Amino acid sequence: MASRKRCMFTVINAIITALIIESQCRLHHLILKDDIRQRVHLNTFGLYKDGYMSISMNSLSFTDGNTDNIDSSTIGFSLDRANNNGFSTYLDEGLDYCPLKKDPSSNFAGVLLLLDFKNNLVRKKTSAEAGVFPNIIPVLPKSIAEDLQADNGPDDGSQSKMGSKSRRDVESKAEDTYPLQSKDKIYAFEFYFNITTDEQQGLYNFYFYNCYSMPINQDSSAPDMLPFNIDINIKEKNPESFLSAGEIPLPKLYICMSMFFFLIGTLWVHVLRTHSADVYKIHWLMAALPFTKSLSLIFHAIDYYYISNQGFPIEGWAVVYYITHLLKGALLFITIALIGTGWAFVKHILSDKDKKIFMIVIPLQVLANVAYIIIESTEEGSSEYGLWMEILFLVDLLCCGAILFPVVWSIRHLQEASATDGKAAINLAQLKLFRHYYVMIVCYIYFTRIIASLIKVIVPYQWKWLYQLLDELATLTFFFLTGHKFRPASYNPYLLLSVEEEDMEMDDVVTTSTAMGEGVKKLLTCGPSQTAAITQLKSASPGLEETADTDWRKGRDAG
User: Fold this and answer.
1) pTM
2) On the CB side of 188, how many CA atoms lie within 13 Å of its CA?
3) pLDDT tens profile 320-373
4) How many C-beta atoms lie closer than 10 Å to residue 271's C-beta?
5) Which of 214, 294, 392, 463 could form a disulfide with 262 if both were Cys (CB 3.0 to 4.6 A apart)?
6) What is the bridge-based pairing of β-strands 186-194 and 110-116?
7) Taking the CB of residue 435, how many other CB atoms lie within 10 A of it?
8) Is 476 helix (H, G, I), strand (E, B) or coil?
């Protein structure tokens, strides 16, 4: 058993380490082979003034190697600017139509870069006025520059002058065309742009289109797919950070929120030590949750700090963050489910139905965290990225639905119990608390999964961090309200069952004692001949001796 657990831990650690090694974060390197997608979302990044984006298409080739029949308006790139994470209406007007074949509208802030393989040119199409959109500046790829340097001699100064002169010639000769380097049917192109004015600031989306794989007419059911291979590097940077405009405040935000979670965890431990007589095992499990969350946020802040400074994370810190994030997610759903089942409060053994819930929730939560890790360490343009995004959304939705079942079952059980047994007041009080807890869980899930995501899309690009702030505040509020409702206290309605059951048992004993005492009184008033019966009652109920003697004296005085 121990060797099996050790093996599982080794496998998970190896997978996480491998994923982190492949990740380049804000220094993107994407390699696609035999890809047949019609649209590839390469990158989205928010740029401030004096920021820049550099894009280097190291190689682009096609499986069949024949580019003679490819129209110049079927394969290329699009670069557009938006104010938020909402999609561009120009690019999403119709999925069955190629945006490269359409002239940009006057309200489209962006450019289309069309690859003309016959003439080895990159044609630029835009309708934006001068100065509204950044100027695209072509750069000779390193391989071509090295070849030119070898042909013209080792003089670096003359070579740099010639290179700058050739770029000026290209720009002055034709502002809407750039050279496309070609060698053995492998094409290369490199360019960059700077944000020089406040008007040019925004959220820039970069796409690659392969419209040649689309059918020539809409009635055709068998399109001629054209697999392509591409190797591209993307580097983006704001004036003082490699993070996007809406992510720059995140390191400070995560540090502040980790302090709040640590404080609420310390407060909870103080409450447990103050009311130690009413503490159950699940209270200590609840205590571990805010501290695990605090650690996860600290490591997340450190991860973002290194990305902000150097463009990629430190592998060790990233691995530690993913481990604490996995533990936090699993512990959160397990704790919610245990509270919902009433474990340790009402019952100390989980039923078979409760165990099945945990057999579903725990593997789903592990799968959701693995999907999250893969998404964080995979380039946005890869074919696996969209698949794992869908898996994460579906699995997270299933987990949120599964943890509601124990609460619903407990509510139904208390409804039935309040109508059958003699503890209706206690059961109704617990029923009210369970309903409140159910509403809390639903609101927490609805806000963090839906409302916060809508805010992420609606708010301007520089306020994207509000999504993380609202998500963390909702989690902090949920932790506080859960701890307040299920705190260890003798007057807590959720903990009244065990106390009130003891009180019920004592009331039964007192009632029985009173009834037996009245019987003894009647026997005593009949005369002194019932002394043997009194002796038998005393031996049967030693605790009633004092009550029986008192009643005997009253009967004797009355006689």
Assistant:
1) 0.75
2) 15
3) 999 999 899 889 888 888 887 766 555 566 677 777 887 888 888 888 888 888
4) 18
5) 294
6) unpaired
7) 13
8) helix
Mean pLDDT, all residues of the chain: 75
Q: Which amino acid is at 378?
A: T
> Are 34 and 227 a contacting pair, CB within 8 Å?
yes
Token reading at 395: 């699995």
316 vs 324: CA distance, rounded Å: 13
Distance (Å) of CA 63 to CA 34, 37, 70, 230, 435? 7, 14, 13, 11, 60
Sequence-separated (6 or more) residues with CB below 8 Å from residue 363 = none
Strands 121-125 and 177-179: antiparallel
Q: Which of 269, 317, 278, 307 lies closest to 24 in space, CA to CA? A: 307
Contacts of 232 (CB under 8 A, 6+ apart): 28, 29, 30, 42, 55, 56, 57, 58, 208
Distance CA 135, CA 72 (A): 22
Output helix, strand, coil percentages for the chain, rounded to the nearest 5: 60, 15, 25
Q: How far apart are CA 197 and CA 47, in angstroms?
A: 11
The whole-angstrom separation of Cα 396 and Cα 390 is: 10
- The DSSP secondary structure of 58-115, one letter per residue, reads EEEEETT---TT--TTTEEEEEEEESSSSPPTTTTS-TTS-GGGSPPPTT--EEEEEE
Residue 528 three-state SS: helix
pLDDT tens digits, one per residue of 402-442: 888 877 877 777 677 666 655 555 556 666 777 788 888 88
pLDDT in tens, 124-154: 888 766 667 888 888 865 555 555 455 555 4
CA distances in angstroms from 137 to 53, 166, 176, 363, listed in the order given: 11, 12, 11, 50
Q: What are phi and psi of 373, to 5 degrees?
A: -65, -45
Rounded distance, CA 510 to CA 506, Å?
6
**Length of the chain as a residue count:** 559
Strand order in the sheet with 39-47: 39-47, 202-210, 75-82, 110-116, 121-125, 177-179
In sequence order, the β-bridge partners of residue 79 are: 111, 206
Question: CA 415, 421, 423, 424: dihedral to nearest 10 degrees?
Answer: 40
Q: Write the DSSP symbol of residue 1.
A: -
Spatial distance between the Cα atoms of 311 and 236, rounded to a whole number of angstroms:
9
Q: Write the CA distances from 216 to 73, 225, 483, integer angstroms.
A: 13, 11, 62
